[in-house]
Amino acid sequence: xxxxxxxxxPSITSDPQDVYRxxxxxLLVLALTTGIAGFVDAFAFLRYGAFVANQSGNAVILxxxxxxxxxxxxxxxxxxxxxxxxxxxxxxxxxARSLWSPSLRGLACAVVTLALWAVLNVLLHYGRQGGPPxxxxxxxxxxxMGALATLFVxxxxxxxxxxxxxxxxxxxxxxxxxxxxxxxxxxxxxRHGSFLGITALICYAxxxxxxxxxxxxxxxxxAWGALALSTLSFLVRSRRSRR
Length: 243
Known about the structure:
The chain has ten helices and two strands. The chain is mostly helical. Strands 1-2 form a two-stranded antiparallel sheet.
């Protein structure tokens, strides 16, 4: 969805997947979720040879593997399919009627699947044996990141993403262009969008650096992400505050 289409909506309070509507301290939520995605993505790539959040990367790895140049392509395929499944399942959980808000349900799914992935890593020795255990771990991580990707897709009506940073880079370029050379009425919004995109990229890259260090001593690594993510439950807005 483009920024112009987002700006046409009467209010972000009508958007159930805008982090400003669903969470208090929305910039903290944006920073923490993208940081967690980068953290587990780096960990998974270095452990399994496949991403769990960056599905664009997995699609490329799949092609390289089918051409005979990357042995871990089945892990990329497993993660890609599981990511789609996680997004599909949790989107339906969010849409169902419940006393819990959609954001709280989506967050609970993401925390639970991350925790289960952590347990599976311990049981399967972090994929050291390769083969089916590594496939299972790549799929479990992909499902958890698919769940996380449903949490929000916009920030103050501006497109932002937790796991898909290729789109973030493209949007930064578009917004910087409008900021520098666009109509005066668009420049403030373009500047704000550029800031949000750069924040997401920095946090994703920072998480990737931490995940790289952590994979050397991987004890319960995905559980750290689940623990950090669970703290966001305290920032979910009540239904009354969203009106």
